[in-house]
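sorry to bug you again but im stuck and you know this stuff better than me. theres a chain ive been looking at and ive put its sequence and its fold in token form underneath. id like you to explain what the token line says about the fold, in plain words if possible. anything you notice is useful, everything is just below.
___
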Amino acid sequence: MSAALWPIATRIAAALNTANGTGEHETAMRLIKVVEEAGEASAAYIGTTGQNPRKGITHTLADVADELCDVIIAAAVALHSFTTHPPAVLDAKVHAAARRLNAHTTEDAT
């Protein structure tokens, strides 16, 4: 993961805290922002397929990748509203996923 993610996400969260506060409504808005960004990534993917005949092909895979990066950033910022140690929480989750993958891979090999 980008070494810049956490320092920048922390700065964004701090700026949002200053501008908007840290109440329940702001927490909800940060979570909803993740969903909004995920929707934009989905829309970009649909745009790569030409699924909408009226619009045709409107996006590239690079556009999808860009939108997915926005999802990651929004999630990192939102995570600050739910824990005081976002990098540690994500790190634990990544390691848990790796353990599940390793266990699944080991089960398949037997």
The radius of gyration is 18 Å. DSSP finds four helices and no strands in the chain. The chain has one domain: 5-84.
